[in-house]
Amino acid sequence: MNHTWANIETLQPRVAKMLIRSIEKNRLAHAYLLEGSKGTGKTKVALLLAKSYFCQNRDDGRAEPCLICMDCKRIDNGNHPDLHMIEPDGLSIKKQQVEHLQKEFTYRGMESKQKVYIVHHADKMTASAANSLLKFLEEPEAPTLALLLTERANAILPTIQSRSQPLSFQPLPREGFLQSLREKEIPNVTAHLLASLTTSFEEAIVLSEGDWIAQARTVVIQLMSELYERPEQSFFTVQEKWVPLFKEKHEQELGLEMILLWLRDLFYTQVGKDVETFVDQTNVLQQQALSSSQEKINKSMGAVVKAKQYLHAHVAHQLLMEKLLLDIQEG
Question: How many CB atoms lie within 10 A of CB 36?
Answer without folding.
Answer: 22
